[in-house]
């Protein structure tokens, strides 16, 4: 029997470390040789942390007895429960509740099961088998064909077809090529990549290695923000152990394939999530975007062909190679395949990390999985896509969540952050918040974004304070168009989105605050 303690950042922040220590000490002192305490990553229901699960060795999460809000003082009862099988009713968290039952875990299949610091633990769960399969049984073209068949689209937000991106880099003349994992997650309220790296770092490394083999690269970088110290530490440990085992390095699996991975720390600039700024930062320069083309696939790091995908995209690769592109393409909607990991935050009962098939209705995510709005309050809107996205009001809650459907509502899926707002939220203030974020994160390279975000923030601030009239609202709308059309990179081009989206669905809230209406 395993007693699994979530030690990802969310549970750590709610006191998982003393729980881990108390259970470990209690287990060592007790006479129950069949029982061991294991550190695991995120089990998803962060709002109920610290979470502890009792399960058979390496059994999936849905077969576990789950305990919520555990404290160190609960350790003796949990140890007894592990020995006898009798549940501790007081701490019981039903694993068949909709939060867990409505999910389909592919990216997160090992999260909450594997010890993120254990190379062996990952291998026992089938880890690195897909990489070995790719290297020894498939040509690079066959790997790309499988990824193309899967119809996987980039999970960082763009939704670009992954197979197409890979084949573009693969077609570039042989020579130095690079693979980059974009782990510079910066959207407010988003923590998918952090949780994946804290919970199952080898899965990401395996995906990167398969990608490198497919496109002919021998060097990879993980660009991760320094504000994620636990993810960085676990990633470092994973790289060290994979190197020691010969799964990263020279002649991997006794083939001619060589692949090394290095970590590069970002200093918290949101714009460094943009691929050209990210590459400039890796090269040691200032993290500022440059015009595209040339695209990284043709001229990326140090002018060499470079493949950039985000954490979740790489985490999907091993299952695709393992179970086949057709299997993956059988999940989701016609144009959005597979599952998507979302971070639920804000005014929602079950905050945490979830993974659902593409096309799941938003209402199911908010009401069933998320458990609805706390305190008996009414739902008002959910922001998807962070500062580049928009809000979705109650009237559109039945929309299936996929790349294309969300676009019809004037928002985007983005990397997977979902911030839920209840009836007490002011949508004008929400728009101001996101504009303030964009204003302070603007790198300043181009004028429309540098000056435009500041002007738009100023106007929003005056509207919020009831100091602006209808003319200023019209000016705000005009500025949105100009900044969207003329900014150099995605940050500026999408900065007006939260304003446009809140204006589209909650225009009355703006108008109520105007001077001439007061
Ligand atoms: Fe920098 Fe903004 Fe211009 Fe992007 S749009 S290059 S963030 S100033």
Task: Give a quick rundown of the structure.
This protein is α/β, with parallel strands linked by helices and 518 residues long. It is 42% helix and 14% strand. The chain has helices at 9-13, 16-29, 75-84, 98-101, 119-124, 129-137, 140-150, 162-171, 192-199, 201-215, 229-244, 275-282, 311-315, 317-323, 325-329, 362-369, 403-408, 427-441, 447-464, 470-486, 490-494, 497-513; strands at residues 2-6, 36-40, 52-55, 65-67, 92-93, 178-183, 219-225, 260-266, 306-310, 339-346, 352-357, 379-384, 390-393, 417-422.
Describe the structure.
The chain is an alpha/beta fold. Strand 12 and strand 13 form a beta hairpin. It is built from 22 helices and 14 strands. The mean pLDDT is 96. Helices cover 42% and strands 14% of the residues. The N and C termini lie far apart (66 Å). It binds iron/sulfur cluster (SF4).
